[in-house]
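Customer ticket, subject: "Can you confirm the structure for Glycosyltransferase?"

Message body: Hello, I'm evaluating your service for our small team and ran a test protein. I'd like someone to confirm that this is what the system normally returns, since I don't have a reference to compare against.
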Amino acid sequence: MTGTGPGPVALGEFEVTARELRLSREPAGAATARVLVRSRRHVLGELEVPVRQGKVDEELLRAATRDLPTVSEADGFARPTVSVVIATAGRAEEVRRCAGSVLAGDYPVLEILLVDNRPGGPESLRLKEFAGTDSRLRYVAEPRAGVSFARNRGAGEARGEIVAFTDDDAVPDPHWLSGLAREFADPDVGCVTGLVLPLSLDTPAQQWFEDWGGFGKGFHRTRFTAADEGRSALYPFAAGLFGSGNNMAWRATGYRALGGCDPLLGPGTPTASGEDLELFIRHVRGGGVLVYTPDAVVRHEHRREVGELAGQLHGYGVGLFALFAVYIGRRPGELFPILRRLRGGFAHLLSRDSARNAGRGADFPAVLARAELRGLLAGPFRLLKALLRRH
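Agent reply: Thanks for trying us out. I re-ran your input and got the following:
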């Protein structure tokens, strides 16, 4: 996909059992559609099909999926109580959309903690009013700035055996919590991450984010452990392969035992990002088991404008430096294992031929290509700022 190609992209789902197409996003002028293919709760993959005269080519879609297997719904796994933590800072309307989607889902035993990271003012009042509309909602104030503080506060307040996290700019699928909780039937699993897809691809910037790599980690269930050193030269320090913090769940006891997200990292701090990736590394490197499942889907609202996206990618570069600096600073014995992977890491980040960058088309803007690198170079100064702010 390229950002300035045929225009906006339609989005939808095709259910192979019912042979039914449902479009969730149908922008005017779309020439293609990205269709998630699933059998009931189970995700099988994604297809890109043409849109002709304003209609998705369903005949082509049905032919392409004709031989796909249907998946049995027999899933007698225990359903533990799940506490969903949504951290926010002045975005009550987005929280309402996100939490409403979770409440409308198929999971029967849950609570949702609305963690206000900017308490006081009209948006906080709206959050409190919304929390009063359903007994499964709870308002929690966390005045210390940063998503790490907010998530950790939510996990500390959680009553569930499992704590799931998503962001206020995400819209979870109706089967999201079922997809996450099913994996915890294995007592060895401490963390589960899921598939993150775009909520819309209306603008070039949103499509360029997908070309950059987006949040998606593919359509194959994967189990990660410390014993998987041969998986790649960068493993387990290519942390992006594990998933992302806008779609993750933890055993509550395990999350708390790890100490949660590092408050020096993440949105709302000078380091801007990296809190989720550092936590994944810490978990796996410490002997924990992490499972990625495509059956747990959330849709993410990508930045619509190029300037916004450039700022996001710059923040990712800052966070990339900061997460490794913080990780090594607190675990000096890990310095040499990371240094051994450094050369391959830079090639992965910078080479046009790397798996990470291969999806970028010729029209991928130079300002976006440079943004993450500039953030990486700014990382030391931003981390110092975060440290000074703490003391």
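A couple of notes from the result: Residues 306-330 form the longest helix (25 residues). The chain has a mean pLDDT of 92. Feel free to reply with more questions.
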